[in-house]
Design goal:
This protein has about 80 residues and is mainly beta. It contains 1 helix and 7 strands; from the N terminus they run ββαβββββ. The longest helix has 10 residues.
Length: about 80
């Protein structure tokens, strides 16, 4: 059984793709992060995340976070390559 992903507000998602889908559905994907986040990507490179949904420039792994959880970087989750 897959473990659910919980956001700061209490919203729950089945995976990172569901987080990205929800943020996109609400029209918030391109919204700026309150504070940029340094992402240590699974490809071994780091990048600065500036939008709620964006991709690692090295491997194109998509990372997402909901607007209500964006101020706490521990809620940022991977959603898949080029998702």
């Amino acid at each position: 059984m897959q473990e659910m992903i919980y956001m700061k507000c209490g919203c729950e998602f089945k995976d990172g793709q569901a987080v990205a889908d929800k943020v996109r559905m609400k029209g918030f994907a391109d919204r700026e992060m309150p504070q940029p986040a340094t992402i240590n990507c699974s490809c071994g490179k780091s990048y600065t995340k500036t939008k709620l949904v964006d991709n690692c420039p090295n491997c194109q792994m998509t990372y997402a976070v909901t607007p209500c959880s964006a101020d706490d970087h521990k809620y940022i989750v991977p959603a898949g390559i080029n998702y």
